[in-house]
Amino acid sequence: xxxxxxxxxxxxxxxxxxxxxxxxxxxxxxxxxxxxxxxxxxxxxxxxxxxxxx
Length: 54
Fold this sequence. Notes:
- It is a single chain.
- By secondary structure, this protein is mainly alpha-helical.
- The chain has one domain.
- 81% of the residues lie in helices and 0% in strands.
- The protein contains three helices and no strands.
- The mean pLDDT is 90.
């Protein structure tokens, strides 16, 4: 259960991406794609924290 806050943050970040992307703009799509590193970092941090805390 300790990784749920990180998963919640990652879900919020993904929802932000989906709600704010302008699919007609290549530059905007690229910025959202590049920001996926933060999604991955949040998921990874949650897994790592969950393992270390158990």
